[in-house]
Fold this sequence. Notes:
The chain is mainly beta and about 170 residues long. The protein has helices at about 60-65, 105-115, and strands spanning about 20-25, 35-45, 45-55, 70-75, 80-85, 85-90, 95-100, 115-120. It is globular and about 75 Å long.
Amino acid sequence: MSSGQGQPGSVSTPPNTLSWGYIGIAPPWQQPPTYAIYAEVTKDGRKMLLKLGKVGDNVAKLLKPHVGSQATTYVPQFGVAWTSALAERRRWGYLYVRIPAKLKALFEPIWKAGYPIPVIISIPPIPTTPLKDGVKPQGETPRALGSENRGAPAPPGGQAGQTGQEE
């Protein structure tokens, strides 16, 4: 039973709420923190960077705690996504992610035009760094006892893999 009237105003943002370009946050088992922002493409020598925000603005306030961690960058305009470390250039005062070398040609016209593009930054709750020795990811089954890799069997009458033996 509906009254036939739509909801007034924006459905996604409650009234009288400051919008920071923040899409949403949920517990780690549901969704990582995700931010929709405008970014600028810049070049530093041969490296191409996606400048996310200057230190002091709202974007930097939201992303600064995640500096050094892996962030997934999605550019809906091109339909590409990649994961790289979120970094801060202290000398110039901005946060950035590196654009992979294989995507440089795609971003070259944007850099030459000098206009910002919309991007979505997502911070995965699970670290994407390599695991330490001896730590196995969840879901991997342990080896059965006695199933060590012993190499090829030795030929009859001798030891395998040894050279220079006198008989």
